[in-house]
Structures are given as structure tokens and as C-alpha cells.
């Protein structure tokens, strides 16, 4: 019965209001978003390329980092092109099918990234707190299993939560006060009780947002304790540099999404939510590769050598030793 209602009342298109209330801001946002998107694609693409091509980076840390970069490219691409179209012209619509695809993919990749950040924190815990057993603990089979679990876990919660939401009868409502299709906003268009959906959303938020964040905090609690036991300043500095990039990425990602996904579905803070969503969908994926390349000597060295070898024909200095 619910399926029948949903099909009858589902609109052919959705209107993404986005930033249409501030038309003078749209052209500026178009240039900024386009610039950030290009930098994000290039930066994350370079990390994937370097991690695959340089044998010195064939380690668990860079395996997970390459996955994270692919996630960021996919996540931002599921949202930004449609945003650019809406910012550029008078058309603010997205087809029903396009909204559904965007809804499922962004939900899937967002949940997956939360889990991946927790997995990466465990990798740093093993590297610093169990250095002698690191290669035994983080063996290739475990790394592959953790990566698959992250992708499949995000896909599962997206299939459940997104399907339950899209089955809700919309009763002809098709105006979404946001720049992309998102669960709390879709739920606001319904004309029936959404208590079950809200419960599912909070449970999913706990499992895929709060729980991974808790695991990250526990991992870094152990890491901090281990670093405090290091007597040499050089050793502490090296351990800090190993984790600082990941800590920065975690802070950026979780700091922006916790507000978005742990607020009531009927909240009225739309304008504030739009700019926070803009931050974690556009700016954070652009900053991640910059953080990892600017603060990571291994990535910078590998990139330099790849450019010299592949583009200029120079061999590594140690290649003749």
C-alpha cells in the first residue's frame, strides 16, 4: 500500500532551492565551488596515482588513503555537478530519478567515509603502539577486509535508510530547501508520520557517525599515551607527524557533519545547514589531499620522483646504488 501511495504522489522533478534566496551570491559561489571541485579532483587523483605507482607507498596507510581519496572524488562528484548547474542558470530542478541516485550515492559514500576514518585511526594505533607487530597486525588480507567492510557497511545503511525515506508519500510536495537531495530534507516533504524513519536515521547516525568517532578517540587516546612515553623529542615529533594529517582530516569531516545529521529532521536551521553542508561536500574533499601532501614527506617525495622519472626521464638517486 505504501509503495502505491509513494508512486502516485512522487513528483517528476524536485526543485532544489539551494541559494536562490540570495541570487547575488550564486555567481560568486559558482566560481568558488568550481575552483574547489577542480582542485579536489586533481588533488585526490594525484594521491591515488602516487599511492599506486610508487612501491614505497604500498603500505596499509596509503592503501586506506587511496581509498579515502577515491571516496572524496566520488562523494563530491555525486553532488557538485548538479550544484553548479543550479548555480549557473535559472533552472533549479533535478529529476526524480536523479534525486534518488544522488540520495543513495551520497548517503552511501558519506557513511563509508566515517568508517574509513575509524579504520585509518586503527592503522595509526597499530603503527605507533604496536610497531614491532605492525606488519603482522595490518597484513594485506586484513586491510582488504576492513576496506570491503567499510564500503559494504555504508552501502547497507544507504539501502535501508534511503529506501525507507523514498517510500514515504510526498503528497505532491517537490520543493527541497537545499542544494542536494538529503534524508532530513526529503522527510520534511512528507505528509505522514516519520517517527520510524527518524528512529532509523538516529540509529544509523549512532552506528556510522558516533561509534566510529568513539573508536577514533579511543585509538588516539592510546596513541597519546604511547607518545608521552617516548623520551626523545625527535621520536615524539615523528609520531606526531605520523598522525597529525589524519587528525586534521577527522576534525574537518566530523566537525561539519555532526551538526547536520544529529539534529531533528524538522529543524528550521536551513540556511546554516546549507553552508555547513557546502563545507563538508565541497571544501573538505579539497582540503584532504592538501593536508596529506603538504604535511607528508613521503607523498611529496614520491610525487617529486614520479614527475622526474615519468616526465623528465630522471632516475631516483638511489636507483644506481
Q: Which properties best describe this structure?
A:
321 residues, disordered N terminus, mainly alpha
Summarize the structure in words.
With 321 residues, the protein is an all-alpha fold. It has helices at 2-9, 23-53, 60-77, 80-88, 96-129, 134-137, 140-166, 183-188, 195-228, 233-261, 270-294, 297-311, and strands at residues 13-16, 93-95, 175-176. The protein is globular and about 65 Å long. 36% of the residues are buried.
Beta strand count: 3
User: Whole-number average pLDDT?
Assistant: 83
Strand proportion:
under 5%
What general outline do the C-alpha atoms trace? Answer: globular
Q: In angstroms, what is the radius of gyration?
A: 22 Å
Question: Spatial order of the strands in the main sheet?
Answer: 2-1-3
**Structural class, please?**
mainly alpha
Main sheet characteristics: 3 strands, mixed
